[in-house]
Fold these 3 entries.
Entry 1:
Amino acid sequence: MASKKDQNKALGRGIGALFADVDEPASEEAVVELALTDIHANPYQPRRKFDQNALKELASSIEKSGVFQPIIVRQPDAEVKKYEIIAGERRFRASKLAKQATIPAIVREVTEEQMMEVAVLENLQREDLTALEEAEAYDSLMKKLKLTQAEVSKRLGKSRPYIANYLRLLGLPTVVKTMIQKGQLSMGQARTLLSLKDKTKLAPLAKRAIKDNLTVRQLEQIVARVNGDAKKPAKKAVKKSPYIRASEEQLQEKFGTKVSISAKTSKKDEGKIEIPYLSNDDLSRILEILNINLD
């Protein structure tokens, strides 16, 4: 059985390293047959929906040939014959559909913290989560493990702006989040909608984007008009230097939101940087990136 030291080491090396240690049987680990009735899903599983057609296909294969790769489970209480799935929930669900009584499994010692990380990583590595499910998975890691965005990005091998952009989706109205969950709105469209100044227009514009099959570029142009940006010719006439534009792009990538740099015309080297935020949570996110702690 893999040692706790080895598992912790794997958690710091990104997705690939984690799976090499958690989702693949080590040569010395024993594969046992466990009753399906003794196994429960991972309580930290971020995926809420599984493709039923794919499950039926897998179930048909299991009926004919069995389960080739054992699932990985843990036993929270050594005195109770109950197990929680660490990796392999699709195989478990398909085996139930195939009316199997048992499933091959490896019992491994894994902490609550590792359990949660593996649940997120298994889905990010093996299945396509919706953008919203991915955002909720990152949010769950931060809240339950008390991690900062920087710590989550380091553990998962993702950039901090990447994590921040997904977390911003959680600030959208419920109706819009449902559209994302159903795959009706893309990540790019959702990010564009987040730049709307009047949040009451979010849902109507999201519905219009779906109805008219708008591209991200078309949606950006509409959002600019709605925000009134097109009514400011004086500002649009001011040409920014390549240095300023490059700086804006880098800051936008870092903060995961629109950033504007404007130079004063009266004094050559003076100007201002504007970073808008959507909510108190979004402000806290930006302050965290700046390493400002107000607690």
Entry 2:
Amino acid sequence: MASNVNPTVRRRRLGQELRRLRELKGMTAEEVAERLLVSQSKISRLENGRRSISQRDVRDLCGVYEVEDQRIVDSLMQMAKDSRQQGWWHAFGDIPYSVYIGLETDAESLRVYEPQIITGLLQTRAYAEAIIRGGSPEASEADNDKRVEVRLRRQGRITAETDPLRLWVVLDEASLHRVVGSRQVMREQLEHLIEMSQLPHITVQVLPFEVGAHAGINGQYSILEFADAADSSVVYIEGVTSDLYLEKPLDVQKYTVMYEHLRAQSLNVDQSRQLIERLAKDYAR
């Protein structure tokens, strides 16, 4: 594995390999859990990459799966060791969506639907500060400051000079009218949005009010895709107390089709930019 692959992706790939070995053995996660005297949920978390995998876990699982090739065992053990390294985001302490950041850091492309706010990767500092403080009124100032810095650090994926993240964003028109921070903050935010939308790897479309009911009516979601064929696409749905990650092909396909409908219902790129420019001028008055 390449040395620059982040720990989240390492855990995910290792989990996929462990699942493959279990299925080759013809065993269920429940059967494996019984053999190792652990919970079935632990086996599931190890396989979906949501939990750190120790070398002892790998050794025990390889024993259950009767893996005889020591080279395979050694490779998996090394993957487990590498997966316990820390990504840049760990320096900021306990970040509730750290799994997502790890996936976003390694993704090749990202498609986002946002019904309420400007998506995080395209936020200005002032807008991000207002959104984070407004959304976490009980958090300490230090915690909110940390979240702002993490959000701004994440934006390095779309400003990188080489291999920047390909970003496609569909914004509900409501996100442009919601006054976050102040009218000046909104003007600066929309001007920044216009500037970023002119980059060749960033596409911004607006879903107008006049569309009415639409394919994204149930809320925000993102679709992450990866360059390595071994990494399946992931649908990410952010929650208040927990997040949802969908990786089954049928789930990803359903959300992908929904996104295509959203893109078709939205204003085209030029029309979207014209609307954003008009609203930015309105905020300047």
Entry 3:
Amino acid sequence: MIFDAHCDALMKLWMDRSLSFQDGKSLHVTLPALKEAKVKVQCFAIYIPETVSEEARFTVALEMIDIFFEQVIGRFPAMKFVRSKRDIDALEENEIGAMLTLEGCDAIGTSLVKLKTLLRLGVSSVGLTWNWSNAVADGAWERRGAGLTKFGKQVVEQLNDAKRWVDVSHLSEKAFWDVLEIAQFPIASHSNTYRFCPHPRNLRDEQIKALIAKDGMIGLNFVPYFLTKEKASITDVLRHLEHVCSLGGARNVGFGSDFDGIEETVSGLDTVRDYANLVNELQKHYSEEEVERFLFRNFYDHLPQ
């Protein structure tokens, strides 16, 4: 079984309304591919493209949620909406859990009411920024490198109260440390290690150790240029995994592929269907229990509810 903490299929389905979750040729994540890969839980991110005007972003978030319920959940009985361990436990053998997440708080502007609305609609994890700044915090590519704003702290406190994940992927370093001080359920849904690939989106050893100390999760992603400066292979994914484990994170690491949010792919990991290739490599180096933890159990165990 696999728990994948991040994909951008909703963005693609929103941008091209002709695509089908059944057989969309440009989709990395489709129902047949999820079944073939034995994915048990797939997180679907609500990511608002930068081209969307500020005043339209919340509406677009609602449109993506509508696509999620109409085109992913509504049309396919095998896809079940999940928000908790209990929901996942209730899945039948042939059913796949679909979880809603938010990538970047641009959609809520400066409104806690909008955030609460998204949580009530079923969002289980909230990434505070994309790569730039918003009313909550600065992102990883924002040169200013500021931390959480006053409103950003209110957002984190709201997520604590609602028992939802606070996702630190894409944050500036200052904002990361601000979040770690107050977040009860921090994760990095799709981030790799700075040690093996010094990119602003990756986590330094001190950040990884801090997430582990807070019993958070790190979802390693399959973005080639977050893995290596060379041609990326599955071996590179394993290098980042082993490094997190060496820092004490064997029970705090999983995968957040970023499928459908990338154009170039890792050799051997072209779509979610290719998780089988990763599983085969993991089984060469780790015990059955460790592989099961990396692929599913670690993220499952860290669900706040």
